[in-house]
Amino acid sequence: MSGLMQVHGLTRRFGGLVAVNDVSLELNVGEVHAVIGTNGAGKSTLINMLSGEIAPSQGRILLAGADITQRPQARRALDGIGRSYQRTTIFPEFTARENCRLAAQAASPRPWAFWQTAQACQRSGDAADAALEATGLSALSARVAGTLSHGAKRQLEVAMCLATQPRVLLLDEPLAGMGAEETERMLTLLERLKPRHAVLLVEHDMDAVFRIAERITVMVNGSVIASGNPHAIRHDPQVRSAYLGEEELA
Ligand SMILES: Nc1ncnc2c1ncn2[C@@H]1O[C@H](COP(=O)(O)OP(=O)(O)OP(=O)(O)O)[C@@H](O)[C@H]1O
């Protein structure tokens, strides 16, 4: 395997429950790798292990060939792993730009070095502006985040993630609760981000997944039952019977 991020035999137990069981996958720059599965399949637990929020019980995570399994979350953010959450993590009373700037600052090597203000401020401000530009939110940068539409808030989540200048994007259900138009906007954004990022996408919207992903991994009860390109997954008999409704794939 030669992906930017490689995951080997990742397992996480919660007491007697094996939430993630011996999962291996890789993320490549230029690709969206979608992870799908029913509720409780282990998708969020997998993302949490990749971002460093929870430790694996077993297995290894490599980033550009370096073993980062033991690195804490803050260090992984510095190493270029960014993530968005199912629940929103926006500060609603701050502007869109302030939210991005704070995200950039939090991911900088010395966020506590407030005496280095001027230079650090300039850097995080530039990163915020670039992230807002990339997500098409520049026109809304001065808006108080709490007043944005649901779709714009989810885009802002991605912008906050981009402000940390990641190489790997871990996106947990970025399309949740979105209408058709907002979904289209987000998919266009993901297409734009693809060439320079390795993207892991956990998403329940199957139409979106099959449209945007180069590779799809299907999890059931913590284990991978299939992994391949959308065509292979669509026609995999085990996937059809275990997870996806026949009519959904027709
Ligand atoms: N901190 C925890 N302690 C105990 N069990 C947990 C914990 N986190 C997750 N689980 C369990 O691990 C399993 C996998 O959960 P996880 O949230 O990763 O699934 P998921 O695929 O993301 O589900 P969903 O699509 O509903 O978000 C579930 O049975 C869940 O109850």
UniProtKB/TrEMBL annotation:
Annotated ABC transporter domain residues: 5-246
SUPFAM superfamilies: P-loop containing nucleoside triphosphate hydrolases
Any single Pfam family the record assigns to this protein: BCA_ABC_TP_C
Recorded coiled-coil stretches: none
UniProt key word Membrane: yes
Source species of the chain: Acidovorax bellezanensis
CDD domains reported for this sequence: ABC_Mj1267_LivG_branched
InterPro entries found in the cross-reference section: AAA+_ATPase, ABC_AA/LPS_Transport, ABC_transporter-like_ATP-bd, BCA_ABC_TP_C, P-loop_NTPase
Keywords: ATP-binding, Cell membrane, Membrane, Nucleotide-binding, Transport
Protein name per UniProt: ABC transporter ATP-binding protein
SMART domains, alphabetized: AAA (SM00382)
Any GO molecular function: ATP binding
